[in-house]
Every structure is written in C-alpha cells, then in structure tokens.
Amino acid sequence: MRPYLLLIAPLLSGSHAHAGGGPANVLVLYNAENDPSLDIANHYMVSRDIPANQLCPVFGYWPTDQVTTFEDYDTNVLGALNDCLSTLPQPDEIDILVIVRGLPYRVELDDGFSTSLQAMLQIANTSRRGGTEMLAGLGHSTSDGLHYASVRNPMFVGDGDQSSFELSNPYMIHYSTAAQIVSQSTQPRSFKREQAAEWFTWDFSENLFLVSRLDGFDYDDARDLVDRGTAADGTFPTAPIICMEAADSARGARDPECHFTIQHLAEAGFEAEWVSPFDGELSGESLAGFMTGTTSLQTGLDGHEWAPGAFACNLTSYGAVPQNFWCSEDGSACPESEMQTSIARFVRSGATGVHGTTNEPLNNSFVGAGLFLLQTFGYGMIESALFTQRYLYWQNILLGDPLASPWAERPLVTIDATDEHPANQPFTVHATHPDGINEIRLYIDGTRVSESDEDSLVYTSGGSPGQTVELLAVAIAKNGERERPGWPEPNQQPRPDIQGWSTVRLTLGENEVQDTADILLEDSGLPSEQKAGCGCSAGQPTAPWWAYLSLIALLRRRKPQAQTAPSTMSSPSP
How far apart are CA 122 and CA 118, in angstroms? Predict the structure, then answer.
C-alpha cells in the first residue's frame, strides 16, 4: 500500500418515520445459476423474516467469476436490481442490498481501474447534478497517474476536532469522526435511501443504498455470518472493543482516532482497550470489536473469541482482493493465494462483520473508529460503518448481516391472529419498547396494507377461506435519550429508529356471521368501532334522531346475513 432507480408511488400516502432497518427494507441479490448462493439467500431471508418477493436473482455469472466488466455489470447486476425493484409493491422502502457469495467482487473500468461490486451497486443510478450523465462506469480522479477516491459520501458523519487526540500520526487528518460524534448532542438519523440528495457533484436522490455482502472462504462462512448477525441482536456485548497500534505509520492513519474512541468508550462504561505496541501474535482475546493496521495478521486470529456482533477492520491495501476469498481445491489452504491478510480470515475466526478493500485504496478511505460509538447507541453494524466512511464508489467491501445490531433493544411485537382466523374478523398488532413506539406497519405477502402511529394496530384482512397469507408486523421504536459520562456532550439523543418485528403464517378460516345490528350500522353509515382494513378507530359522532327510527324500521324488514371484507391483497496511503 502506498503511503498517502426506478420508483413507484408508495401504497399509502402521508409521511413515514425513518426506519433503522428491518425485513421490509432489504433486497437480497444472489447468483441465480448457483444453488449454494440461493441456499444462503433463502437462509438469510428465513432468518430475518424477509418477504419472499424481495429475493432478486442475478444471471450471467459462473460461481467462480471473481471480476466483471462494467458492461456486464450494467446488464446483469444493475439490470437485475432495477427489474426487481420495479416489481415490488413499495420499492421506495428498499434501503438495503445484500449480495450473496457467488457474485463477482470487483468491477473493472475502461480506464484501467476498478471499484468493488458493492461500491458500484451502492450508487446505483446516481447521475450528475443537473444532468443525465451516470456516475457508474466513470473513471476515478487521478493525480500523477494515481487513482484516488473523490466521490464524497453524503451520509458521512463529518470531521471533528483532532486537537484532543493524545496520539499523532502523519496521515491522521482523514480520521476524526469519533471527535465529531462525542461533541454533538444529536446523532444522525438512521440510514434511509430517501435522505440522500444532491451532494457536491452528484445527485444521489433515491439512489444510495446500504450494501453488504455475505461471504467468506466458502458458503459455510457466509451462513455463519447470517447466524451470528441474528444471534447478536440485543446482546449488549460485555467483551472489550480493542484497538491495537498499527504495525507501521502509513497503516496507523487511524490510530489517534482509535485511541480516542477507546478512551471515550471506557469513560462511558463500556469495556474497551488500547493495545500498544503492535503485536502480530496477539491471540486469546475476547472481542466485541477490533481495529488495527498491518499487512500480516494471520497467526493470532484463530485464537480469539468473538462476541456475536463483533466488527473488525484491518487498515491495509489488499485485504479484500478477489483471490483472498478462495481456498485450494482440497480445502487445505485458505486462501490458496493470499495478498496481505484476507478479510475472510476474520469471518472464519468468528467476526460478525468485516471491512476491507478490493484494490489499492490509499489510507484515507477506510471506515473510522467512530463506528463503535454509534453501535453502542443501537445503530446497525453496517450502517455505523457507512456513517464513518468518507468516500463512495471506491474499493470498499463490508461483510456481514446489515440488520445486525448488538447494542439495540428491539421492540417486542405480537400479532393476535390465530390459525384458521376468520377472513372477515379483525386482529390486533401490539408493540412495546422502553422508549415507546413511534410507528407500526403491517404487511401481507410483502405488501404494506396498514400503519399506525400508536402502539397498537387493528386490521381486518380480506381474502377467501382456506387462503394462506404471510403477515409481517414491524414496529419502530421512539428514540430515547442516552447518557455518556465523560463525553463533551454527556446527554445524547441518538436516532437509530430501532425496528422490531413479528411474522405469522395465517390460513384464513370461514367467515363469521356478524351481528345484524353491526351490519346495519355499517350499511347505514352510522359509526362503528373498526372499519375493515382501516387499521384505525372511527370517531363517534352523535347520530340524528331520525337515523335511529330508520334503523328500527330496517331491523324489522331485513334478515341476518354474512359480510366478507374485500380482498386486499488525498493523501498517501499504506
């Protein structure tokens, strides 16, 4: 390392709360010509209750294809993304893309350089401000023949004051998000695609995704990432977050911020440790997070015990080059041909999330140590990494479940619908959280059908007796205050918009005959407690005296009848 879309109008109108990431916000892309890739995609979808229509097949690649041309990417991958979004009932809710092992790692550009597949997908159909020229496929900025990152991340937390850092490094100017986080009382809104807008040269409106990858040395590693991600939620790890001094100055660009982060975590009551000097043989540690910088860290990794949700990043150039993800045919060497320390080693060792780069990135484009501070507020693991990443459309790869949130207490959601629930009878969704509930959303077979800004929602589904439907109820918690003793701003207002959810596979039973008076009240326009499919309570105005006389007359003439609800369905780098 050298030193230095397509949009469809939403089903429901009105404004919606930003969401911290849940099943309704994820689209999973997999290699449609590779059964193991589909198996992992299905495993992830089942583990996270993702609706079946949010599985997106990508054609045109052998499972062993490690790189792709931009032309093939544009046709096969971006084309698949746009096609899949166009078929969804509410594509505007898709904020997160998950790439499953079996698709290429790098996209080669005509100017002799490349981006990671993840970085290319992340900016999707972004175009130049005030024009139609697409960002995807353009070459990177150059200086003296050297490519460097120049596309600014609109979600970047920002730079803080480094004057309080106790350590110094010639390249430290690029890493100060931790100082920004501890000095501001209000933290960023959770990631939402609709937040991105024009930023510097580019218009990211509706075209910036949170992207991660399920991968490792093999498909078992990818499956392990899924299982660790789901196991991590709400565990509030007590193992320490460790930053270790880098092996050299260029790879130590992040060291001052990392040391600062460890200090502030410890002051706020979290287990955190700064290790100095660099120890390439470090082993046997319990870890909830780990950062360092070195070309070689193979020896100690297998000896660590990683807590569910643990995130790792080693600042070095070639940790995520394509060859670093492949073992020898007999499986005796993983990887078979390694450049520096493969990020897949961290996955095999037990980490839940890892960051690396697919080509020479320079040392100003890695994720910042401030991500650990954001995670402790309940922000997602991958989301926190993106907030501290200065540039987009570059070499970055993030491995792991984007919904993994080890320091988040998710809302508890219950659905009172039962097996053989009558098709015309209401059921209730209820949610609780210590900070309260901001919103509940209900989905049937992947389509949002109702929402409420209270902690309960009542809904009557349509459909026919015997029909099976998938109910997904999502609750978004209110954002409560948090105390961080020792910080410049100890009273913190994070905004992770934590989601919780519940699913029920429901077979609709026979319609129940409603009480005649209830039917007549609905027919006559008089108030009732709950309208079918409304998801809300009706008001209770006083009816005029003549309406009651009309009702009595109707009761004498009409017989009881069943009613069925309608169907709804630049600086130097290492």
Answer: 6
Structure tokens at 113: 């350089």
**61 plus 188 within the same structural domain:** yes
For 357, counting Cβ atoms within 10 Å of its Cβ (0-12 exposed, 13-18 middle, 19+ buried), the class is buried
Q: Which residues are paired to 198 by β-bridges?
A: 203
Is the pLDDT higher at 409 or at 546?
Answer: 409
Specify if 3 maps to a domain: no
pTM, to two decimals: 0.87
Nearest Cα residue to 322 out of 65, 6, 34, 38: 65
> Which residue, chain included where needed, has tokens 């630049």?
570
Residue 11 lies in a domain: no
Contact 96, 21 (CB under 8 A): yes
483: enclosing H helix or E strand? strand 482-483
d(CA 422, CA 416): 12
CA-nearest of 144, 175, 124, 193 to 393 is: 124
Tell whether 395 and 417 lie within a shared domain.
Answer: no
* 211-260 pLDDT per residue, tens: 999 999 999 999 999 999 999 999 999 999 999 999 999 999 999 999 99
Per residue in 331-356, pLDDT (tens digit) is 899 999 999 999 999 999 999 999 99
47-95 pLDDT, tens digit per residue, is: 999 999 999 999 999 999 999 999 999 999 999 999 999 999 999 999 9
Find the DSSP H helices in 253-405: 255-267, 298-301, 343-349, 370-375, 381-387
219/344 same-domain check: yes
Q: Are 455 and 440 in contact (CB under 8 A)?
A: yes
Nearest to 233 by CA among 416, 20, 24: 20
Model confidence pLDDT, tens digit, residues 321-330: 999 999 999 9
Q: How far apart are CA 290 and CA 296, in angstroms?
A: 15
